[in-house]
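Weekly sync, protein design subgroup
Attendees: M.S., D.O., the rotation student, P.L. (late)

Item 1: inverse folding check
M.S. brought a backbone from last month's batch and wanted to see whether the design step gives back something sensible before we order anything. D.O. pointed out we never logged the input encoding, so this time it goes straight into the notes. Structure tokens as presented (174 positions):
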């Protein structure tokens, strides 16, 4: 059963105005530097490419345009390395290497902790992608495993997960 979800969000550099309502058009703007993680090397990059495919339904030609302009700045073997102790997304946005970075919402929360001016924008419903995480406690597991699962599924665990940028999948239909 899924217990947490990590969605793709749009992080924006300090001072760059971005909202959910205008996100698709802004990403397609030739003057906007769009960054992603590296597809096939990092799942966040794969999710960005899935979002580009969804954008095609809203704006014909969007997929090719977004794939062509996306700067693959994290997750790959040749990705720029941030200075020691710096969050890669915060550093890349603060340095102006990107105006908008598509990444997990959990990465967005961590980047904003380092650079409070970073914007975090949810993707419109038609573009939303992400990963659901499951939790299973095996028969015969140590009692500590059950206690840990109960903690994660309880109010304090959920509060902590939300604080790190996770949300929760909709309950499965019977």
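Designed sequence read out in the meeting:
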């Amino acid at each position: 059963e899924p217990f947490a979800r990590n969605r793709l969000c749009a992080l924006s550099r300090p001072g760059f105005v971005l909202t959910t309502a205008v996100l698709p058009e802004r990403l397609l703007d030739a003057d906007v530097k769009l960054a992603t993680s590296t597809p096939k090397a990092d799942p966040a990059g794969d999710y960005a490419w899935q979002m580009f495919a969804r954008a095609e339904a809203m704006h014909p030609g969007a997929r090719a345009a977004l794939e062509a302009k996306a700067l693959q700045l994290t997750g790959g073997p040749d990705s720029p390395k941030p200075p020691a102790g710096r969050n890669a997304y915060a550093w890349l946005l603060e340095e102006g290497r990107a105006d908008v970075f598509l990444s997990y919402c959990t990465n967005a929360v961590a980047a904003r902790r380092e650079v409070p001016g970073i914007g975090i924008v949810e993707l419109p419903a038609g573009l939303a992608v992400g990963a659901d995480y499951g939790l299973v406690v095996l028969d015969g597991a140590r009692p500590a495993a059950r206690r840990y699962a109960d903690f994660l599924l309880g109010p304090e665990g959920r509060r902590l997960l939300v604080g790190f940028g996770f949300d929760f999948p909709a309950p499965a239909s019977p």
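Discussion: The longest helix spans residues 43-58. The two ends are 13 Å apart (CA to CA).
Action: P.L. to compare against the previous round before Friday.
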